Amino acid sequence: MKGKISFRFRRVWQRNLDVYRESWRINFLPPLLEPMFYLMAFGVGFSGLIGNVRYGTEEISYISFIAPALITINVMNSSFFENTYGSFVRMYYQKTFDAMMATPLSVEEIITGEIIWGATKAVIGTVIMLAVISFFGLVSYPVALLILPVAFIGGIAFASIGMFFTSMVKTIEIFNLPVFLFITPMFLFSGTFFPLSGLPFWAQMVALALPLTHLVNVIRALNYGTFNGDALLGICYLIVFCLIAFPLAICKMHRRLIG
Amino acid sequence: MKQFSQGDFDASQPVIVAGNLKKTFGDFIAVDDISFSVSSGICFGILGPNGAGKTTTIRMIYGVSPLTAGSIIVFGLDIKIHPRLIKARIGVCQQENTLDPDLTVMQNFEVFARYFNIDRKTARTRASQLLKFLALEQKQNARASELSGGMVRRLVIARALINQPQLLILDEPTTGLDPQSRHQVWERLEMLKAQGMTILLTTHYMEEAARLCDDLVIMDKAKILVQGTPEFLINEYTGNHVIEVAEPSKEMCAFAREKEFRREDLGHRLIIYAENGPELYGDICKRFAHNSCLLRSATLEDVFLKLTGRELRE
User: Fold this and answer.
1) How many residue contacts between A and B have a Cβ separation below 8 Å?
2) What angle do CA B81, B83, B85 make, to 5 degrees?
3) How many structural domains does chain B have?
4) CA distances in angstroms from B209 to A144, B2, B230, listed in the order given
5) Chain A CB within 8 Å of residue B66 CB
6) Which residues in chain A have their CB less than 8 angstroms from residue B107's CB?
7) Is this model's pTM higher than 0.90 or not?
8) CA distance B99 to chain A (A)
9) Domain stops at, among B234, B251, B282
10) How do residues B120-159 score in pLDDT, each as one tens digit?
11) Chain B residues in contact with A94 (beta carbon < 8 A)
């Protein structure tokens, strides 16, 4: 891969940003509205049934338990969907990658630009959601600002996974499979809407292997202003995950695009 | 329109030298040991029926398809070692519409120019010239998705020129265009050629190849069948004239056999390739009293069909 990735990958990133800006009003809506809906449904409607949740040694309200999880889920969704459906449309329908490959860009740079763009979308969503959730008084600054770089790392992880699936699917409908077999279970069972301790032991072990569990742990800790050892461990896990998933995604896409 | 500089490249050297080029996909041989070279400043055509290996060949030349064996030297540089340097100096117009549909025409230029590290101001200046050159200046603020097929193709060609390439590669540039658009594309390509641009194009329109190409190869089943100028190939393989006899009689066929004409018997149609066309035509008309007999000039299409056969390629 040496010599094939230069900083020129930013040209791909800029292209995606240009297209994003063409329809930014629509692009802004999901990360703005989604947390509000969830906070209203779960925080106002649902939490009366639940009361408080045990987090570490403390009792916290259900709404503040799920607020950081909403940010985390958005990180996963925005990067994963960008690099599955979004990248696939660019590659397969719009032939954007074909156009790029005929320029000095290398395939490695194209895929790097795509993945970094997926992570960037995760960060943009995080900024908007943090702002919304802050209005509910649920975020402790300044430590919570560290959520932004963490969202970027998490974004790269899920963008790489998305790209990995993109390298394999024949038609766009097949993305339903990883969504239902991978994304939806993570969304529900990674300590997002209830603590992991609510799961049987084996399920906890499975959850610990998945990236969303670690991402939600880190973001939740930072959200409450507690940067602890667990959070650090979680970040290490995510970095190692990226170091495997990112080159793998590039390798697989290289094979798909030029054999 | 700015003259296309030849840069540090020696114009007396061939722009492309392909030697014993081979490409396989698993068991399938897409390109089988072909060699050719393209001189500077000419239009070189790669002709062939569908699946002949044309697109695979040019994809190897512009560096997106690794060679299974053989070598390609472009501007004196090896494509395996310097793909980036080579790609910076060529323009590629692919078969499909590769424009960004969500962006305007001008934005398409800006975005594409950035892939070459061309700054925005230069990109805009060049884009304006190129839009004018391809008669698209009215459309600079239109979205790419709103353009007609002919405009899309012209825009893709214009966009391929944004880096002022020394070699323009076109993969079936007029497939699917109406006659007006097709002629406009041809005219522009001729103008580029007049400015010294080297052009490599694939096509399965013989009329296009005959009009544009100074030199060409006809490929079929992964191999090069023949190479030469359109005139040479016509003279060599069919002669100047073609006489077509519809529903030939037995006597007519016997006559053709006896005289050993270069011919093709399609059953309901007898095609005779003749050097002394008018004379023979008169003779045939008189002796076999055919009012369904036709004399015409031989074209590249005759050569093509003669060499690649008439069965369908699907």
Assistant:
1) 68
2) 105
3) 2
4) 65, 26, 8
5) yes
6) 18
7) yes
8) 7
9) B234
10) 999 999 999 999 999 999 999 999 999 999 999 999 999 9
11) 98, 100-101
